[in-house]
Amino acid sequence: xxxxxxxxxxxxxxxxxxxxxxxxxxxxxxxxxxxxxxxxxxxxxxxxxxxxxxxxxxxxxxxxxxxxxxxxxxxxxxxxxxxxxxxxxxxxxxxxxxxxxxxxxxxxxxxxxxxxxxxxxxxxxxxxxxxxxxxxxxxxxxxxxxxxxxxxxxxxxxxxxxxxxxxxxxxxxxxxxxxxxxxxxxxxxxxxxxxxxxxxxxxxxxxxxxxxxxxxxxxxxxxxxxxxxxxxxxxxxxxxxxxxxxxxxxxxxxxxxxxxxxxxxxxxxxxxxxxxxxxxxxxxxxxxxxxxxxxxxxxxxxxxxxxxxxxxxxxxxxxxxxxxxxxxxxxxxxxxxxxxxxxxxxxxxxxxxxxxxxxxxxxxxxxxxxxxxxxxxxxxxxxxxxxxxxxxxxxxxxxxxxxxxxxxxxxxxxxxxxxxxxxxxxxxxxxxxxxxxxxxxxxxxxxxxxxxxxxxxxxxxxxxxxxxxxxxxxxx
Length: 476
Fold this sequence. Notes:
The protein is an alpha+beta fold and 476 residues long. It has helices at residues 32-37, 40-49, 109-112, 116-126, 141-150, 152-157, 185-191, 216-222, 238-258, 276-310, 388-393, 407-413, 416-425, 435-440, 449-458; strands spanning 7-10, 13-16, 26-29, 55-66, 73-79, 86-88, 99-108, 204-213, 228-235, 270-272, 317-323, 325-334, 337-346, 348-350, 369-375, 379-385, 396-398, 429-431, 462-475.
């Protein structure tokens, strides 16, 4: 990326002053190396977002950013409904409420090693993964509506989860304001056999070891210590979310034109928050969020069932579950006034600071766990939300390593079978229905996740707590 277009504010803050149709500045948080490696499209998309009506404060971009559909992946933008603000399906993404949950096993690495291969095989058999994967749960119309309204609560009520989890899931496990009637029949059809499935792409279930502790005090609050084993699940709302995104993007292109919104890019299709299309999209999107929360709860149940077979009496407790493709109404302080804003986070994670009222009492002293997915070979991180993130990016942080190259380019460079063999030599067992999918998700296709989280910490968005290394990865 050409850095001459930016004003460098500090070591990790790069600013584009408003020009042309921009309503606010565009700000990217990253170190110089990460900035130079970003695609120019990230600059273009961050600037385009800053042109949308009703945008508040700035268009923000996280250090793991790469270009996406309309918004950059890693983009954060907030809009005020009282100032003709918009909601954008492109600002949420197609995989609505894709997110991460991490569960504590109470086990140490030596407990896992003797059964590592058979545990990997069992998880692979029990966790449906891959393109078009289906599970054992089939939903009729009544159950579909109940799931879209109830989220993780629905899964727990049906025996596919643990009520103790609900306190550790964002929004208490259920997104209010969901309107199942705004979800099309086609979206419902796509989801009726996909509950409790990982899907494909960058989604996974990993058994991980805590390899390094950065902040012992926060790690203690989170229940983490070196050599501990955790289970992390990364997935979203599957076919239902994708269908909702596809349908409402088409509607929003028409709605934007009818509302006199001049879109700098058709992919930024938006609708006024208070419009009929905007309200219907929010109802459908919140229903898709409940779908994702229910899906991760069921996957957690399936993982627990496998672990109970290998380690009888062992319970997996939930550390936290948080999404990174959402639009939420949140109160934020803007120029000394508390305002209700529609905060879009696309490939960006909510990162509430210590003391935030929405956090569970047991975690409030440390701040929200920020769960950062890495790659199959390089590992992941757990961070904690920091106070500066409120003023710097509406309490948001990065969500993962971020792609460094396209899936097509990765396929040209790597063999899925060889990656599987190489990682096995490092003590990492990969299980996937597709060697092509493994190649597309090659560790080398991603940015250096260590550099990404270090930049997020230096920018004041979130603080590193622990680094995790993979032992087993079930890949879609």
